[in-house]
Specification:
- It is built from 15 helices and 22 strands.
- It has a 7-stranded antiparallel beta sheet with strand order 2-1-5-4-3-6-7, with helices on both faces. A 5-stranded antiparallel beta sheet has the order 14-15-20-17-18, with helices on one face. A 4-stranded mixed beta sheet has the order 8-9-10-11.
- The protein is of the alpha+beta class.
Length: 604
């Protein structure tokens, strides 16, 4: 059963054996070398891959895992992939003798029940041996693939009740043996993918880890096996110590939060994530007991590895960013993820959509809880998108194409203490870039009609969230469109009294008598010329809106982020002049009177 395997894979691992007593400077230099190789691996993949989701959007991450299965170094692409890779590799390590591991080998895994995230997140990894033939570390590259060979393109089947509906599950498969590609296994993977670009993506992942394995071998030869092992041990221990020092500064106590998902893909409402974060001295415990465990839910099952990784992603954002991200963070926190909940499902549950929800609600809940003790570093690692509009069709040769809806937009960019929400992507997506709308038009038979921010869609606060955007596109040929709509009833939360973000919304066949709003899910056949209008939600606010500097509200009004009426009713700011004449000015006396009245009303 996966529950027992998950316990085994997530258990604390011993340090690497070494006789070297390394100094901090040398340990730091070696760590820098490992991180540089990770960066090279991720860059190699980004430049060599065939599909836009990797070579434009950068939805990939590189990591070095040591021979014990501990996370030793990372290069962040998408933060949520940072803390997942090691469990897939740990499962492979358990097959070291059975699968005949050796120099020049390359493996792949993606199975949610064997340490993986969801099926689209392929983890390709290569062992690195020293000249004496001893395993020292593993170079891993994880990236989101556009398809998984399941029932529906992209692997996102809205009504899936098991993992097999979603695609090909790979616990551990050898792709390269002693430097020679296993063309039978590679052809098997290529055949189980709808898109010809997959062959290039897989080749780029293999090439990336092979290139990086050679660089790591050079690093081992330069410093020596024992010194590299000692450096890895030192840096993991140092991260744990510094992390515990941070936690020790927090106020002891229990801090809880609840976050709801609108509904599962069949319409069961108000799916709950509950978290209690306990601080006791230098020990942090994150407990998801109380999270939804209804067995009949569909589409909202997150994998154990993902839940564990998403918790850590939010914790890592809540501490000093100078603390190195590695296995030491996991040593410094106890995670309780109850079996049978949507955060730790039974074996063979579908998991593709779970990487959106409840994964994001897990980080959101941890952020809400920890904001009570670490407000200055409470940056929500969340994207509340539900599921991007996927538009699917066939070209004249019969080849399927899919616009995955990852091009230009503004969504979910929340405020943090002292800084308004800014940019187009939430911090949760890290180095992920949005593909250019013009590029999508050159690849697919679509036209983007609108990519504008929506006035009054920011989460109000002393520091306000970024507005969401209305994205309108027209399909030029008959196509199928898929969507799962959430974050309408329960949009992104504000922090410490800030307002929640604005909700999402979606309409198909806009401007025709057939126009309709997507309330739950959609798998629709759209005629040529059909228009889709997707309203992306804004970001949440931080602290009460009535505390916002009136001059900042004025600037928001001039920038058409906030309307004059919203400035008055939400922020308690009155103006003279007008936006049109650009002579807007804060009416200080009227503003003070407004705010006094708002405080009195709230107190009553």
């Amino acid at each position: 059963m996966s529950f027992e395997l998950n316990k085994k894979l997530s258990a604390k691992r011993e340090p690497l054996p070494t006789s070297v007593n390394i100094d901090p400077v040398t340990a730091s230099i070696i760590r820098g070398g490992l991180e540089t190789v990770c960066f090279e691996a991720a860059t190699f993949l980004g430049r060599a891959a065939s599909s836009p989701i990797i070579n434009q959007s950068n939805e990939r991450n590189a990591a070095v895992i040591d021979a014990q299965g501990r996370l030793a170094a990372v290069s962040i692409g998408t933060p949520h992939l940072t803390f997942v890779s090691q469990l897939t590799v740990r499962y492979g390590l358990g097959l070291f003798d059975e699968y005949d591991w050796g120099p020049g080998d390359v493996f792949v895994g993606n199975d949610p029940d064997y340490g993986g995230g969801h099926l689209p997140d392929y983890n390709v990894y290569a062992p690195v041996f020293d000249d004496a033939g001893e395993l020292v570390m593993i170079q891993a590259l994880q990236a989101h693939q556009g398809d998984t060979g399941g029932k529906d393109p992209g692997g996102f089947t809205l009504e899936a009740t098991d993992i097999f509906t979603e695609g090909l599950a790979i616990p551990c498969l050898k792709l390269v043996h002693r430097g020679e590609k296993r063309r039978d296994t590679i052809k098997l993977l290529e055949r189980n993918n709808r898109f010809p670009s997959f062959a290039g993506d897989l080749a780029a992942m293999i090439g990336g880890v092979q290139h990086s394995a050679k660089l790591l071998q050079e690093l081992i030869r330069k410093w020596g096996t024992d010194s590299v092992r000692a450096a890895i041990n030192y840096n993991i221990d140092d991260t744990e110590k510094r992390f515990r020092d941070e936690v020790a500064k927090w106020r002891d106590g229990k801090y809880s939060a609840d976050v709801l998902i609108d509904h599962d893909t069949l319409g069961t409402k108000d799916i709950k994530v509950h978290v209690t974060c306990t601080v006791a001295g230098d020990q942090l415990t994150v407990d998801l007991t109380g999270t939804d465990d209804r067995p009949n839910l569909v589409g909202v099952w997150n994998t154990f590895a993902n839940s564990r990784g998403y918790i850590m992603t939010q914790i890592a954002a809540s501490i000093d960013p100078a603390i190195v991200k590695n296995e030491g963070l996991f040593h410094g926190v106890e995670m309780i993820i109850p079996e049978g909940t949507i955060a730790h499902p039974p074996i063979n549950k579908p998991a593709a959509l779970g990487s959106f929800h409840p994964a994001c609600e897990i980080t959101e809940a941890v952020c809400l809880a920890l904001s009570q003790v670490a407000p200055a570093r409470s940056a929500p690692q969340v994207y509340k998108i539900g599921m991007p509009n996927a538009v699917i069709g066939f070209d004249k040769t019969g080849q399927m194409w899919m616009d995955q809806g990852v091009d230009a937009r503004t969504m979910d960019v929340s405020a943090v203490q002292g800084i308004d929400g800014w940019g187009s992507c939430p911090v949760a997506l890290g180095a992920l870039l949005l593909a250019e709308a013009e590029d999508a038009e050159s690849r697919f038979p679509i036209i983007n009609l609108n990519r504008e921010m929506t006035m009054d869609s920011e989460g109000a606060g002393r520091w306000r969230g970024q507005p969401g955007s209305l994205n309108v596109k027209k399909v030029m040929e008959p196509t199928m469109a898929m969507a799962w709509m959430v974050s309408s009833d329960h949009p992104m939360s504000g922090l410490l009294g800030g307002d929640p973000a604005s909700p999402y919304g979606n309409h198909f066949e806009v401007g025709t008598p057939n126009e309709y709003k997507i309330e739950l899910t959609a798998r629709a056949q759209l005629p040529a010329g059909a228009v889709i209008a997707y309203q992306h939600g804004g970001g949440g606010g931080f602290e009460p809106a009535i505390l916002r500097d009136p001059e900042a509200v004025k600037e928001d009004a001039l920038d058409e982020i906030v309307s004059i009426s919203r400035a008055r009713t939400k922020y308690g700011v009155a103006f003279t002049g007008s936006v049109e004449e650009y002579d807007l000015a804060v009416d200080v006396a009227a503003t003070e009177a407004l705010r006094q009245n708002m405080r009195a009303t709230a107190a009553a």
